[in-house]
Design a protein that fits this description.
This is acetate--CoA ligase. By secondary structure, the chain is α/β, with parallel strands linked by helices. The chain has 2 domains: about 20-450, 3-Layer(aba) Sandwich (Rossmann fold); about 465-550, 2-Layer Sandwich (GMP Synthetase, Chain A, domain 3). Bound molecules: ligand 6R9.
Length: about 575
């Protein structure tokens, strides 16, 4: 590991970073103290939405812009904290009128539109569970997730409804209500806005408790269908604190998180952390476009920016010229998450945008940032940083008796976290067995391989299972392979991530055909199209290679490790035995 630390000196006129307070640390960190900073509710209650908006109104931020929405066609709308408090009250009242309350699941299937944010907050207020679905999922991943969540209500748009819900609504018996953000009432859908108009914007404070379910995020593992990770209201203690300590958010800041709320980052840091810290959140509806992004950073005077390595690589590809002429002087802090951020990206940020990118590490299951390069410490480019206060991280090796051995610095193993932080997931929906597999003694095993250096910085090495990250999106082989197996010509399918300069990895599948089918270009195109129609562009394979037979274990499991070796042109033995070892579910 070679690194040159980037030493950071705050500008003379800049207030001291509000990071990891020396005083707090001297007194000893405890999550109890972090919880005590929350407003809370009578009788020990706690509610994420209340902490995010109503508390801020009470604290005098009612007129501060909470959400600044930039529509893809140039539209611009602002919602103050008071607006969000009122709109989420209306939505909560509406849910109650429809008989939806504690523990019920409410899904969104939408791009980054204001209605999604109102739905999230209103859902949390009635104690229902907010479950966002990525709008670029195709009909199959959408059906699987809505069905598994047993959502009773879905907020979506006309187009997404027509394409992804209507054709399979009969297979979703729990789904009683569909509300369209942009449509009128019809026999089986209702207009979000018409219903909202009929509701009052006042309501009594929520009655949720810290351990009540709040969020449901689907994520993928090496085997089996997607898993629904459950988070509770208590998680807000970690969202708020990491927003302050890692992202350095302060009231009055303009903050832009580029992640889509269809994934965990877009909820934890695209909604909850910024609002609970009283900042103005910028939401851009449009997809990535380098010139548009620089214009947003400059025009909106973004102070803090949280983005992803794929986007950083795309900006690097477009070149530094695109950044020139934009006044980025408001930018105070930039951070990244979701994939390895290589040292070049960190340094490019410093040279081109005036700030280094700070890598942060966490997962759907951890709910909030666990390891980070924080503002008050030197960055080691290429490292994920150090565990935050309240987080105990270790590199471990699983023992066959179910325990773990803690490894020394410099050794390679699995990244584990000692259980007990507030935003730790509380279960996989209806899958206790898989939940238990994530733990050994009191350690949560992340499924990531890493090492720790002598100074306590953590370095990412890879995944232990077969999930991949493509453009920052976590994809499991099960869904992709299953869809291909539905095609009458396909006998076997195996998915891998193929290294890609920009997306990190792209989805590639190897396919063995049934007898009587010839592997030609026409069939390749047909299969790719077939998969794309069902899976959607975010998940569908980009490449497909025919093989006469896929390598399998004696028990018949496809050995994706060998497919990866073939792709990389390596003899199988050259692949690290640690990385992607078969049978390690995560
Ligand atoms: C927040 C999020 C989690 C997986 C995680 C790891 C990868 C996240 C990373 C990183 C290298 C980083 N990952 N941050 N890899 N460096 N800084 O991304 O959640 O979608 O559940 O993915 O992403 O493999 O285990 P999720």
């Amino acid at each position: 590991m070679s690194w040159t630390p980037i030493c950071k000196k705050p500008a003379p006129d800049e207030p001291a970073p509000n990071l990891i307070d020396e005083t707090v640390m001297r007194a000893g960190f405890s999550w109890e103290n972090a919880r005590a900073e929350l407003a809370g509710l009578p009788n020990g209650g706690l509610n994420i939405a209340y902490e995010a908006v109503d508390r801020q109104v009470e604290a005098g931020l009612g007129k501060t812009v909470a959400l600044r929405w930039l529509g893809k066609n140039g539209e611009r709308r602002e919602y103050t904290y008071a607006d969000l408090a009122h709109l989420s009250n209306r939505f909560a009242n509406l849910l109650e009128r429809l008989g939806i309350g504690k523990g019920d699941r409410v899904c969104t299937l939408a791009g980054r539109i204001p209605e999604l944010y109102v739905t999230a907050l209103g859902t949390l207020k009635v104690g229902a569970v907010f479950c966002p679905l990525f709008s670029a999922f195709g009909p199959e991943p959408v059906r699987v997730r809505v069905a598994k969540s047993r959502a009773r209500l879905l907020v979506t748009t006309s187009l997404l409804y027509q394409r992804k819900i209507l054709p399979q609504r009969e297979q979703l018996p729990d789904l009683e209500h569909v509300l369209l953000a942009d449509g009128d009432d019809d026999s089986n859908v209702r207009s979000f806005h018409t219903l909202m108009e009929a509701e009052s914007d006042r309501r009594a404070p929520p009655t949720t408790l810290p351990e009540d379910w709040a969020l449901l995020h689907f994520t993928s593992g090496t085997t089996g269908a997607p898993k629904g990770a459950v988070h509770v209201h208590d998680a807000v203690a970690a969202h708020r604190l990491t927003g302050r300590w890692v992202l350095d958010l302060r009231p009055g800041d303009v903050f832009w998180c580029t992640a889509d709320p269809g994934w965990v980052t877009g909820v934890s840091y695209g909604i909850i952390a910024p609002l609970t810290n009283g900042v103005t959140l910028v939401v851009d509806e449009a997809e990535f476009d380098a010139r548009r992004w620089y214009a947003i950073l400059a025009r909106e005077r973004v102070n803090v920016w949280y983005t992803a390595p794929t986007a950083i690589r795309m900006l690097m590809k477009v070149g530094a010229d695109a950044a020139h002429g934009h006044d980025l002087s408001a930018l105070r802090f930039m951070a990244s998450v979701g994939e390895p951020l290589n040292p070049e990206g960190v340094i490019w940020g410093l040279e081109t945008l005036g700030q280094p990118f700070h890598d942060t590490w966490w997962q759907t299951e951890t709910g909030a940032i666990m390891i980070a390069n924080t503002r008050d410490r030197d960055i080691r480019p290429g490292s994920m940083g150090q565990p935050l206060p309240g987080v105990e991280a270790a590199i471990v090796r699983r023992r066959s008796d179910g325990g773990v051995d803690l490894l020394e610095s410099g050794e390679e193993g699995e990244l584990a976290l000692r259980t007990g932080w507030p935003s730790m997931f509380r279960g996989y929906l209806e899958d206790e067995a898989r939940y238990r597999q994530c733990f050994a003694a009191d350690w949560y095993l992340s499924g990531d391989l890493a090492t720790r250096d002598a100074d306590g910085y953590f370095w990412f090495l890879g995944r232990s299972g077969d999930v991949i990250k493509t453009s920052g999106h976590l994809i499991g082989p099960f869904e992709v392979e299953n869809v291909l197996l539905e095609h009458p010509a396909v006998a076997e399918a195996g998915m891998i991530g193929k290294p890609d300069d920009y997306a990190g990895q792209i989805v590639k599948v190897f396919v063995a055909l049934k007898p009587d089918h010839a592997p030609d270009d026409a069939l390749r195109r047909e299969l790719l199209g077939f998969a794309r129609n069902r899976l959607g562009p975010a998940v569908a394979p980009r490449e497909l290679e025919f093989m006469s037979d896929l390598p399998k274990t004696r028990s018949g499991k496809i050995m994706r490790r060998l497919l990866r070796a073939q792709e990389l042109g390596l003899p199988p033995g050259d692949l690290s035995t640690l990385e992607n070892n078969d049978g390690n579910e995560s």
